[in-house]
Amino acid sequence: MTWEIYDWLLDRARSESRLRQLLLGLQWSVAELDGVGLCFSPVDAPRTLPWSGTLLGRSASELCGWIRSFDAAEACVGAVSVNACINGQRNSALARAQPLAARGPGHLRVFAHFAPLLAGAKVVVVGRYPGLEQTFAGVDYRCLERRAAPGTLPDLASEYLLPEADWVFVTASAIANKSLPRLLESSRGARVVLMGPSLPWLAEWADFGVDYLAGVFVRDAAELLHIAAEGGGTRIFDRAVEYRLLAVS
User: Fold this and answer.
1) Would you say 91 and 38 are in contact if contact means Cβ atoms under 8 Å apart?
2) Do the bridges between strand 28-32 and strand 36-40 make them parallel or antiparallel, or are there none, so unpaired?
3) Could you give phi then psi for residue 211, rounded to 5 degrees?
4) What's the pTM?
5) CB-based contact 180:123 (threshold 8 Å)
6) How much is the average pLDDT of 65-69?
7) How confident is the model at residue 104, as a pLDDT?
8) Inter-axis angle of helices 72-87 and 4-12, to 10 degrees?
9) Cβ-count burial of 82 within 10 angstroms (0-12 exposed, 13-18 middle, 19+ buried)?
10) Distance between CA atoms of 121 and 118, rounded to whole angstroms?
């Protein structure tokens, strides 16, 4: 599965369009090609990028190809370009996904939706989400994070915890950092939720062991760009995007 996911994404994102706009924000990156896409911005991007100011007008095929890069900033450009192309297509997965109506940051709406199903289950959450400890109160869960913090375990713990898990929640930002293929392979025995604004809306994720997609629909692209440009994180969920959920298996 190592490169299979990326080859599949590139095939599904195939487009003749050219980059209209790109924003590498403090929290979120946003691109406009056929449609508008998001990706979580890299934490460790270098202060000088050799291609800054040269990407506008470049082809979708070139920029989407950067999703295979191991440079964090380039991989982000690739992932956000892939999402923008996929979101610009007639997307049956996104059209069938149901809005999560509960209030609060989008990720907590996802966890609140699934919490009643998790009694007695072994749960692993890949990615650190603010407020998770309150939403999952009473749930037996472990949280993995590449940058370990209080209350989390290092990502190498995935090799031990995921094969024994009943439910796994995986941040879609794992696509850009190349950890997703191994995370999905290790979670084959679990119900898997692939989630976050970085998610490409494709029902065929089921072929890779994903059971649910929880991502965003861009409601107001101008507002999204405005908030992201000012370093906004969870504020994008107020008006700019809407969290949706779809069962794919």
Assistant:
1) no
2) antiparallel
3) -105, -30
4) 0.94
5) no
6) 98
7) 64
8) 40
9) buried
10) 5
